[in-house]
Structures are given as C-alpha cells and as structure tokens.
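Mods, move this if it's the wrong board.
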Amino acid sequence: MPRWAPDAALRLEQAAVELFRAQGYARTTVPEIAERAGLTTRTFFRHFPDKRDVLFLREREFPDVVVEPLASAPAGLDPMALAMHGLLAVTPELEAWREGIRERRIIIASDPHLIERERSKSAALAGAIREGLLRRGAEEVDAALTSRIVAGLFDTALDLWTAADDAASLASIILDLHARMISFANAGGGAAHGSPGVD
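Not the wrong board. Structure tokens:
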C-alpha cells in the first residue's frame, strides 16, 4: 500500500497515528504532527486539508485499486463475482498492514467526525465498484445493489479481521462472509416461496 502515496505523506501519517495514540485525536495539532514527522506545517497542508484526512491517506486511491482488476477479469462473470474478484485482488497488500489498520480503526472509533468520514469512504468504494461494473456491461440496478453489498461486506470483514486474535487471513474472512451472504439469500428465497399465502 505505500506505493499509493508519497514518502512525506506516509511520514505524516505515521507521526499522526503515534500522536493520536499517545495523547488522543482531539488534543493533537497539525504543527505537532508536522514536527514529529520532521516536516513543516506547509508540507502537511500540501498533502492533507486537515488532521482528520491524514487517517484516510491510503483510502484515497483504494476504490480505484479495487476496480482496476475488473477490466481484465474473465468474461462471463456476474456482477457479484466481478466485484469479489476486484476485492480479493487487493487483499495481499492489505494483509501486511493488519496492525496499522487495527490502530487506525481504534482511533476512528473514538471520534464522531472520524466515524462520519469513514462512512463516506465506504460510499466512495461502493460508487467506484458500481462504475466498474457498469463499464463491464452490468445493468444499473445490479451494479448499484452489488456495489453496496460488497462495500458493506468489506467493512464487516475489516472489523472481524482486525478484532481477531488468530491468524485468519482477510481473504478467508471475505470469502466466509460471501458464503454466509449467499446462504442467507438462498434461505430467504426459500422461505419466501414456501410461505403460506393469505386467503
């Protein structure tokens, strides 16, 4: 994932996380972050509009990175299979950053403004997947529904992965959630068709 950002931005991100962890998000200032990173405040604002955004550095290009593999995916895949293909293609890079993601999510959970920003990140991922599916010929309704489901699945997978004490991979958790989702859908469909009607 470091390939997605300049070195100065990564240094600022690391400095910010260390300070947020040590003294809290609310008490940390931009000048403190810049000083800890060995950079100037001006340099900080060249990379980030505010201190909140420093926690979302790696998410800036993430939606596009997920969608990129969709263009070269095998023909004949349905929208869900296409979206899962894109998601699973990036998990190897995320695996190496497990502790960093865990720290970041703990910090985000401590502040309502950060939580709101995190929600917008999920919406951005869904939007990018939707566009990628449309470019592959998916119908609008299928692309919209699939993209929202997969973005939600990914957020849930991150929660489980970063909270787990075992060595379960992110990919295995994503696949397990996908299997559960299919199972729920099949069970729900069967219940709906088998329900007694109203006379």
